[in-house]
Amino acid sequence: MNDTLIVYYSLFHNTKNLALEIAKQTGGTLRELIPENNYSFDYNTAAKEVRNQITRGFCPKLIFGNESIDDYRTIFIGTPNWFKTIAPPVLSFLRQHDFADKTVIPFCTHGGGGFCQIENDIAKECSKPRILPGIAVNGAIVPEEVTNWLEAIGYL
């Protein structure tokens, strides 16, 4: 069994596409986080919902993706950049697991904001992991960029 897990939340498929590429290159197991209540597919409505949840520190109930991480040593954690931080479903996942002795590798997709506070927020929520530098992608997923990043962090 491969001991790498790629966990992600994706509303508009951008983060999902990056997760798929990471899984393809690492052979890791994919796990999509699915909250009990979906966000609106209308961008403006979803933005209002998300901003409110982030402000409150809300952690939605996950109906899929929150299974044990005990069998994995390396965990890639992916999120869209939502208002300079992680998506609430990712926060739910982080707060429900023990990351001691795990290697955590963040990744995100964004519309021009880069990582902002995402790497710091993931580090703050995880319990004693080893955290490697992540990748932030704006636009189309370029496999060579992912390969170069994985090589740079010593994964490949």
TrEMBL record:
GO MF assignments: FMN binding; oxidoreductase activity, acting on NAD(P)H
Classification via Pfam families: Flavodoxin_4
InterPro entries recorded: Flavodoxin/NO_synth (IPR008254), Flavoprotein-like_sf (IPR029039)
Chain ranges of the Flavodoxin-like domain: 4-152
Name of the protein in its database record: Flavodoxin
Upper taxonomic lineage: Bacteria, Bacillati, Bacillota, Clostridia, Eubacteriales
